[in-house]
Input
Amino acid sequence: MRRAPIGTLADEPAPVPSARERRALLTAGVRSLVVLRERGELTSAEVKTVARTVGVHERTVWRRLERARAAGTADLAPRSRYCVTDEVRIKLAYYRGNIKRVHQEMLEEADDPKQVPSLTTLHRAVKLDLAPGDLAGLRSGIPASRALDPHLKRPPTCRNEEWEGDHKQAPVLVWADGRLVKPWITWFCDCHTGVTMGWAVTPHYPHRGSILAALRSCILTDDIHGPAGGLPRRIRIDRGKDFLSRAVTQAMGSFGVHVDVLPPYTLHLKGSIENLNRAATSMFFSTLPRYTKTQKLDTKHRAEEKDPALTFENFVDLFAQWVRTRNTEHRMAGRGNLTPMDSWNSDTTPPERATAEGPACLPDGRRTLHPHHPRARDPLAGP
Output
């Protein structure tokens, strides 16, 4: 007999199923045996096959068959366990979700301590019977409970149907005008395809000029800014005063774009752009020198805090490269393992193009202001 070469699957031990997996396999096997017995085709060979496959004794399978005939089902009856009562819920609310303190009071009130479940059993019951949001609300209040609320996904649409925009301060120190600053990024993404439509970077707090520059890079579809672009049907933004400025609202109104202004503190209503903000932090900003959230060495110092910082221009170049890589190479499991640009190109919905003179009213990020103007450093925009 020819042996398998070293390093093949033949040398790897088979994974040992857990007790839960073994019970599930045995239940499925007994269910099949019950069907064979009803047809009069059950033999000991099938019972031995199930026992060998599951890894139990043959007598165990026969006992489960007899139990299934008596109960009328192959499924095991649920085991009895301790459940959280309304009285325990009241005690949890009174003690701010402290399970151990609730258990101590139950022991003090009980005539026989043996009738009180153990602390481990009480912990298990609370975990099974109380939703994580309920327990967080008992411990920290309603905001903590709402943070764990599930949110439904919006139905799928088409490209350029919905955009979301936001500001993001990069947690990275860069050199700009002779001092270390944290640059700000203004960008928009397409909710259906996940494409980063356009962006603008400023070394200071963003303003309406950076928003208009980012919108211009989103709308244009030339060789520099394309191929993704066009006009969206609606844009979701937060209540930032720069997003609500007259210049931005007039620009969007001139293009016929509907602007949805979200209520305050509702990040879940613009989850696409918030997910992009988190992805940029974990996948890009954290890899740059002078990242401000590196590991702490002690209470005052962090790792790599003495590394040389990038210049503002180098940061913009690296950020532009990361955006292009994410649009063309990053595959998303939630979108069929496609890249954002693959999702964009597979959508046959024709994008609405702006007129030739439309984007001309938006700044391109290279306008020069008076050197003493507080906004002298204009945004650097990109596709």
